[in-house]
Amino acid sequence: MNSTEHTETQVLVEVTGSSKEDANAVFGALCTAFTSDRPSDDAPRDDTGGRPMVWSATYDVSAVREQAAPARLTEPVSVTLQGGYQAVDQLREQLESAFSVSEEGSASGDQEKELQLRLESGSGTAP
Fold this sequence. Notes:
six-stranded antiparallel sheet; alpha+beta; globular
């Protein structure tokens, strides 16, 4: 596989405005489905002194290892996806299997798109 093909299967995920536990729930769900540049035991940490935090990871969506299971969030989470059109759509599908997802915005380029999503606990999670 050449580097262009590899880039077309990668999606950058940024989680903002959430607790470290909620960011970990999002990354954990995605790590079930895809390989990532983050080790599976690399949990987000707080060290911002009260400032807003952004956590990020890159996922390779070329193969789904396992369907992402429903996950619980303590509050709504803002997520930004950046990557090729098909790759972003594949990653969004996995988020939709784990959370209730609503689109808050998008931007499209020649070969890539960016989606801003709002995630909430899905119907398959206990209160």
